[in-house]
Amino acid sequence: MKDVRKEINHIKEFIDTFCFAKNVKIVTDESVLKKINKTSKENNTSVVNLYSSYALWLCMNEIYPAWFDLSIHPAQFDFEAQKNVYNKDATECLIKYLNEYHEKKYDKIINNALININTLTFIDIYNLVILAALVSDDKQRHITNILSLKHETQKYIHKIIEYLEKEKNLNQDNKLLTHNNSEINIEDINETLKNEIKQLKKKIKDLETENENLSNSLTEKTKIIEENKVVIENFQTKLNTSVETTKNKYITQIEEQDKKIHELQNKLEKQFKDSSQIEKELKNKIKELEDEQNILKQENQNNATLQNKINIYKGKLDSLLTVQNINKELEDKLKNNTQKMVNMEQEIEKFKAETTKLKKYEEKIEEINAQLEKAKTECEKLKTDNEEKNKTLQKLTIDLDNKTHSYNLLKKEQNTNNLNTELSNVNQSEELIRLQKENEKLRNKIESDTNKESKRVKELEKELKDLKEINNNLKNEVLKDTNNNNAQTNPQQEKYEAQNEKIIKLEAELLIEKKNSTIIEETTKNKLTKEFNAALQIFKEQLQIREKETEYYKETMKTQIDTFKDEQKLLSDIIHNLGLKYKQLQTYNLCLKNEITGIKLRTKACTNSDNK
Prior knowledge:
Layout: H1 2-15, E1 25-27, E2 47-49, H2 53-63, H3 88-101, H4 107-115, H5 119-135, H6 139-147, H7 151-180, H8 186-342, H9 347-416, H10 418-484, H11 490-611
Parallel strand pairs: 1-2
Helix pairs in contact: 1-5, 1-7, 2-3, 2-5, 3-4, 4-5, 5-7, 8-9, 8-10, 8-11, 9-10, 9-11, 10-11
């Protein structure tokens, strides 16, 4: 069984030299011989069984396609196309055609195959197929293919050829004996034998020449293999040296790049630490600014209380308008009195009525005196309010001095920390703008309040003038009445004169207070304007300085940010290039390993072939 298995493997290796076998997998399945036309497995074109009629047809179609064409295809013998199953009729037909191809020189082998088809008969049939390939028109191609096979298969093919030649000669001898036993003499037999011996000698010479050619080719191959070994050894030494040098170079490069990466990482860590410290300092400064904002909010609340007081004073001044209406009513009544004075007939009755009216006037004058006293108190309150505002302005100036001092300190700090300056300058500039706006609002409020107060004072002056005129008219009327009624009106005149004296005193006091109030207002306005202008100039100068500093720091920050971005880009590019170089090294090492393994396998194969 071992010999049969070896012979089948040799036959399979020979069939692999055909063109169709390069795209097909050849399988040896003996179970098919026992299942004649019972199973109908579909033939997979990529797999062909060696014990099938389809495999025989493919081999003979490759050797002699003009004879073994589609007309002898196994599908023509009552069987479906492309079935990888043993077909008795198809194999018998192919064997007969093969016998005709060999001119019926191997009747014994073919008769045995036709009687009982098994593995041994299939081996004999494939031996005839091999001989057909060597006898065909394209025999040179098949011979070159045989020379590329293993040494054992080549020996097997030589044995087959020798065996088949012996069989052919025996068949010819048997035929000659059967046909010429009665007719041919012994001499003729000797001559035929001599001729056959000559032919055999010629064949032996041909075979010897072929053996010499084969031995020469083998020696040449051995020389080539030895040369290849030397070349491979030299190549291995060169490869080892080149690999070691390249490895050392790449290792040094990697170490240098690792050092650079560590340095860059340390720089980044330092920058992160610096940024964290800067953030902490900025947070502390923001807290300080928030405290200052709270203080300013409290000051704004105080200003709101002052505004409420001003509104109260405005309401009180509105109440004075009612006094004007009363004066108008008095004027109307005086006109009526003048008309009554024309009518002298009812002077006494009217005088009585006028006395009552004088009493009412006295009461009204007392009310006016009370209102004047209230106005005095309000003026005093306004003075106190102005003093409080002056105090607040002083506080603001003190705050400005403190802020300028803090600004100078910040400026010193900014010379060391360039990153903090931009945010602090922006916050300080915002605070300065906000303080300017608040100062402008206070200034506008003070101016509006002073304007309103001056307007109210002017209105009061007009009202006093009107009252004076009314009093003068009343005096004239009273004098006329007194001239007519001297006896009756003496006590009334005394009262009237006393009231007039009181009115004159009150008017003088009002004038003095008005002058004092105007002087105080003018002085306060001048002081406020001077202080405000000075503060504005200081703020403007500070703002200009800080704007210049902010622009300088912005430019420095931009340059630092650009440099930082460029450094980050360089780091990313360096890391990317390192990764690419590392991958290239890995791929190069893998290629070298694969080449070394391939060279080792080739050397092993060459040594194995030499040993065989």
